Amino acid sequence: MLRVEGVSVSYGRVTALREVSLIVNDGEIVTLIGSNGAGKTTLLNAITGVVPLKNGNVWLDDCRLSGLSSHKTVRLGVGYVPEGRQTFGAMSVKDNLTLGSYSQRGRNPLSTLGYVGWFLHHPSIQSNLEMVFKLFPILKERQKQQAGSLSGGEQQMLAVGRALMSSPKILLLDEPSLGLAPNLVREILKLLIRLRDEGLTILLVEQDAAAALKVADRGYVMERGRITIEGKAKELLFDDRVRQAYLGKTVA
Ligand SMILES: Nc1ncnc2c1ncn2[C@@H]1O[C@H](COP(=O)(O)OP(=O)(O)OP(=O)(O)O)[C@@H](O)[C@H]1O
Ligand SMILES: [Mg+2]
Fold it and tell me: Could you tell me the residue range of the domain that residue 124 belongs to?
């Protein structure tokens, strides 16, 4: 499904990614773990066209993503829940969700039809909205409320729901559990398993390596812009290097 091949990214003279390669197969949850500043967000931004690649390629099935704008990568099926949620606080929950679907057809929502007209002419948006509301009943309850007034966990659900509105083939999530209480972290991770079981493919960046490895099928460890360890999630959970560096366990 997703292939990252030898990708390098620089910010001016700072090299953030060095020849990173990874694969996410159809129907897998793959997690990317690593310390602060390792380059995890940069990799997701490189896949989604937010930052340009210096070298390498990114493929989604037979489609080359490298060089495309982030708008186009969404249209091709890459859903992105960026770091820090980034919902539109002054807009309603429902409007935040409908905005997520605009890229679905690559149409400018503010074109001739106007906002409401555009919405009414796309029944798939209505059905996606119903799907998201079924997944997150709390968002249905709060649909008229301003997004900024939601709790942290609710905003995270909104961010995931918004990405799902674009009917993605693969969902990329950057630290969805950041700042959430442990029970909400479990909820979000359970949701990812459910989405995977329903056929979605997922690339998950997580600080909480133990939690991520428990839900993932495979994992990659990134250090200073390089992939240093990869393997089945269950094996990584018991890998001494991973345990020592990321799971807070001293190796006997
Ligand atoms: N816009 C930017 N300009 C310059 N340097 C940047 C920029 N964005 C990131 N960097 C640098 O690139 C490196 C990788 O950053 P990145 O945000 O990808 O790390 P991360 O693994 O996501 O970290 P965290 O876990 O803290 O979110 C860091 O050294 C960071 O300072
Ligand atoms: Mg980051």
Answer: 2-246
